[in-house]
Structure formats: structure tokens, C-alpha cells
Design brief:
single chain; alpha/beta; Rossmann fold; 3 domains; seven-stranded mixed sheet; globular
Length: about 550
């Protein structure tokens, strides 16, 4: 662990001082929710993210990021300071407390896989290892509570803090035969295809997946939350499938497959384009951590993605061997040519951003048209894509950029968010400036909650106009601009690419009213058609 994220408070000041004196970098964010999202992003990229906060007013602000990390399987560890044991006994009514009991601990138990109060030197090390091991096993959050007067308690020494190595379990022969049967089923299809999801990334299963795809000659589409699972420059990778929201050609390819393996992707509403995934259940093999393997006529809860991939990786090559897939040109279809005085639409904005993306970048997109538009971005070979694509919490991407940079400082963060999302996390602009993080922050300013307008419009979707440029400059940015046409946008992006890697840059883009991404238009049309269709006859 190289970096942790947090906000100081009186119950945790001693721990902050200890961290400051340690080799671990301490990144102080503007708010606790920002620390949570930063630690979430760090955990997604490096396997563990840590947020350190004070009790009550600090920790409870983390419930939203931690719930999102639970829903999207991100290993985020919360370390919360707490009132000291002695002062709690002498004075139960202490500030930041809801009640004189373990209310906070109970709240975090609902959104974590393991929790502990480190109130004993004899058991603290074992409890810490237990929580971390359960987080590793489930790839989900954990919670540690540290009373202020327990920080300097002695721990018995020497002590072995190394958890037992998770040796690969022997696969029972019956389970192996079952897995091999489904490999034969996939090999017998005319048009087999894999739809890969977020669980494969969280458990670092990409090498096994790629090995099998290359050996079998299968193609891969990914879910929205699984974007950048494998390099998008590989010939096996087709792009993002998201039901009616996706590109028609890719949608036809996936939905016409007679052997669709949905691997490591629970079929939630946002990853399926609000359940517009039109596939024949008889042609689908679904394998994920929650339910194991499921088909229209079979079920095996013990065949999870890791077990299935292990069985398939150890199987022999098919006969005859498949022909290698032809390499595809990863470059954009055409260079971006800005049109003078042309207002900036969402698709053109994404095309301009794609044209300047480095080969190694971390793209972070907030829910809404920033995310839907970014789904079609073609990322470089070494790039990452992070989003709150299932939990769908606005205000994720900007603070998450802090953690993405902390995990991969060689990858400049590129943040895409709407004007509504920015209002929920604008304080973290100051964090980007404080640590000179070379982030590009692009604000899609359409004057309100543009994604909600097609669902049900009203004045509640409008927002107070904000001078984003002046706001960023006040927060410490040295580069911030407001653009109203493609030429201004292209000029700003060029300056960022040439000399913007020494600190954060903000570009606020004036998006015309009613403008939306192609994905949102496709989804709106599909849902309208679905609502207009008569119900089936009884």
C-alpha cells in the first residue's frame, strides 16, 4: 500500500501523525466522500484502497462510496477513528456520536464483508488480517474502527502478519467433467461469443480469459462496467454491449450468437440497457460469482468464473485449431476536424477526446451522458476505464481521479462528468490542484440533468448556472476554459496534450439543449417502442 486517502479529525489525528511519519503517502481530500471514491478507484486498480476518517460525521459520509464499492466489488478498506475506551466509559455523551453504543459499526456491517474494532493489542493484528483476507476473497469493502486511546497499545511480538497463501483448491473430478462438458458445448456452436464483465477484472482473471480466447478463436464483447477488461486493440475485442443502448452492428453480433457465454457479469439493468438485451435463453450460458453457472435448463452453483476458466485453461486445444482472428485497425475511423462555429455535440466531443487520448490514460466517467458517450471511446492499449456504472452515484469520477492517479501516476486521469455531477463534488477540484494531479476535467454543461429529461422533464431537472472556469481557477487550477464550439474545444485539447501534464486542466463545454449521445437516443427509442407495444394476450 503506497497511498491512503482521508480527512483528519480529532479522533483520528494520532493515526494521521503516524501515517505522516511512515513511508505511506497520505493524500488529504477536501471531503470524506471524496476520500471514499478515491480509495475505491485505487482499490480497483491496485487491489486495495484505504480511506481514513474520523468518527460519526466523517465516517458516515463514506456510506455512499462504500455501498457503491460493495455493489461493484471494489476492495475499499475504511479505517475510522473513534472515541477512546476510557473517555467513553467516563462520558458517554461525546461529540460525533449518534448513541453511546456501536451504531456506526452496525451501519457499516450492512455494506462490508468484514469488520472489526481494534480495541485490544492481543487481537488487533489477527483481526486486521482477518478483515483484509475476507476483502481479498470477496473483492468487497471492509471496516476497521480504532478507538483513539488504542493506537499505541503494544502488540505481542514477534507476530506473523502473513495470511495463509490461498493455494488453488483441487477441482473435484465431477465438477471438472461438468466444466469440460460446457467447453464442448461452446466449441459446438456456429457463432460462439463471450460477454465479459466486471468480476473478471476485480479478480484479475484477464490472463486466463485472454489465453482461452486466443486458443479457441472466440471473440469478446464487454459490458459497460467491464469496459477495458482487455486491451481494446486486441483482435478478439469487439466493444461494449449494452442492449438497445449499444451500437447496432455489435448488438446484432451478440444477440445472434448461438453460444453466448455471459462471464463474470450479473445482468443488472444498466449493463443490459434497462433490460433490452434480446437474446434466446436457450443460447446463453451465464456464469458469475453470485449464482454460479446457469442455463435455461441447468444450474451448478460451484462453477464460478475462476473455476470454469481454470478448467478450460487446462483443457487441450480444439481440433482443428481455429484460424487466428484478423487484426483490426485500432485508430479512429477519421482524424478529428473541428468545424468553426459549430456547437459541440456529445458524439463530437467524444471524438475529439479520443483523438488526443494518450496510449496510457485512465478515463473516468460519471453516470449519465458522460458515461454513455464514453462507452464508445476506443482506449489505448494500456488504458483503464473507471465508472460507477451500476451503483450509478453522481460525483464519483472527479474524486476517483485522485485515487486513479495515486494508483497509477504514470496514467493521466481524464474525467468526464456533467454539470450536475460537478456540483456534487466540486470541492475535490481543490484536491487535484493541491497535489498537482495532471488530470483533464471535461464538464458536459447542458444546464441540468440531461439524462433524466427524456424520462420525465420538469423544472426540477434545471440547474443554477455556474462559472466553471472561474470556479476551477479559484480552486487552484492554472488552466481552465469555457468553450462553445468545436474549434475552441480542439484548441484547448491541443494545449492540454502539449503542456498540460504538470497540473490539472478544466474544460467546460457548452452542450446545446436537447443534445444527447447516440446511446441515449437509441435507448429512448427502444423504451418508447417497448411502451407502445401491446401487452401479450392471455
Amino acid at each position: 500500500m503506497q497511498r491512503v486517502y482521508g480527512v483528519p479529525g480529532d479522533y483520528v489525528l494520532g493515526l494521521f501523525a503516524a501515517l505522516q511519519a511512515s513511508p505511506i503517502d497520505l493524500i488529504c481530500t477536501a471531503g470524506e466522500e471524496g476520500a471514499g471514491f478515491a480509495a475505491d478507484a485505487h482499490g480497483r486498480l491496485q487491489g486495495l484502497g484505504v480511506a481514513v476518517v474520523t468518527y460519526g460525521v466523517g465516517a458516515l459520509k463514506l456510506l455512499n462510496p462504500v455501498a457503491g464499492a460493495y455493489a461493484e466489488r471494489s476492495p475499499l478498506l475504511v479505517i475510522s477513528g473513534a472515541p477512546g475506551l476510557r473517555e467513553s466509559e467516563e462520558h458517554p455523551l461525546l461529540h460525533h456520536r449518534i448513541r453511546a453504543d456501536q451504531t456506526q459499526l452496525r451501519l457499516f456491517r450492512e455494506v462490508t464483508v468484514a469488520s472489526a474494532v481494534l480495541d485490544s493489542g492481543r487481537t488487533a493484528a489477527q483481526e486486521l488480517v482477518r478483515v483484509l483476507e475476507e476483502m481479498r476473497r470477496e473483492s468487497r469493502p471492509g471496516y476497521l474502527e480504532l478507538p483513539a486511546d488504542c493506537l499505541n497499545r503494544e502488540i505481542p511480538w514477534p507476530i506473523d502478519l502473513t495470511p495463509p497463501a490461498p493455494a488453488p483448491l483441487a477441482i473435484p473430478e465431477a465438477l471438472r467433467r461438468e466444466g469440460e462438458r460446457w467447453l464442448a458445448w461452446m466449441r459446438g456452436r456456429q457463432h460462439p461469443l463471450v460477454l465479459g464483465g466486471v468480476e473478471l477484472a476485480r479478480f484479475r482473471l484477464q490472463p486466463l480469459l485472454r489465453q482461452i480466447l486466443e486458443r479457441e478463436g472466440w471473440e469478446l464483447a464487454t459490458s459497460l462496467s467491464g469496459k477495458s477488461l482487455l486491451s481494446e486493440s486486441l483482435p478478439q475485442v469487439l466493444g461494449i454491449y449494452e442492449g438497445a443502448m449499444g451500437q447496432p452492428q455489435l448488438r446484432q453480433r451478440v444477440e445472434s450468437s448461438d453460444g453466448l457465454l455471459v462471464l463474470g457479469q450479473p445482468l443488472n439493468d444498466l449493463d443490459t440497457g434497462v433490460f433490452t438485451m434480446a437474446v434466446d435463453p436457450a443460447h446463453v450460458l451465464q456464469v458469475d460469482l453470485e449464482g454460479g453457472l446457469r442455463t435455461a435448463g441447468a444450474r451448478n452453483e460451484n462453477l464460478d468464473p475462476l473455476t470454469l476458466l481454470r478448467i478450460w485453461a487446462e483443457a487441450g486445444a480444439p481440433e482443428p485449431a481455429p484460424l487466428p482472428l484478423a487484426a483490426r485497425d485500432p485508430a479512429p475511423a477519421a482524424a478529428f476536424e473541428p468545424a468553426p462555429d459549430q456547437p459541440v455535440g456529445v458524439e463530437r466531443l467524444m471524438a475529439a477526446i479520443e483523438a488526443v487520448l494518450p496510449a496510457a490514460a485512465t478515463v473516468l466517467a460519471d453516470p449519465g451522458d458522460a458515461l454513455f458517450g464514453a462507452a464508445d471511446l476506443h482506449l489505448g492499449e494500456y488504458s483503464h476505464f473507471l465508472a460507477s456504472s451500476f451503483w450509478a452515484s453522481l460525483g464519483f469520477a472527479l474524486p476517483a481521479a485522485v485515487g486513479a492517479w495515486g494508483a497509477c501516476p504514470e496514467h493521466p486521469p481524464v474525467v468526464l462528468l456533467g454539470d450536475g455531477a460537478l456540483l456534487m463534488c466540486a470541492n475535490e477540484l481543490a484536491t487535484l490542484a493541491r497535489y498537482a494531479i495532471p488530470a483533464l476535467v471535461v464538464v458536459l454543461d447542458n444546464g441540468g440533468y440531461g439524462t433524466e429529461r427524456p424520462i420525465l422533464d420538469g423544472p426540477f431537472n434545471d440547474l443554477q448556472p455556474v462559472a466553471h472556469r472561474e470556479l476551477a481557477l479559484a480552486m487552484g487550477f492554472s488552466a481552465a476554459e469555457r468553450v462553445k464550439n468545436e474549434e475552441e474545444l480542439w484548441s484547448c485539447l491541443g494545449r492540454w496534450r502539449s503542456d498540460g501534464m504538470t497540473g490539472p486542466t478544466l474544460i467546460s463545454v457548452d452542450i446545446p439543449a436537447g443534445e444527447m449521445s447516440a446511446a441515449l437516443r437509441r435507448l429512448s427509442a427502444a423504451l418508447a417502442q417497448k411502451l407502445a407495444s401491446p401487452p401479450p394476450q392471455a
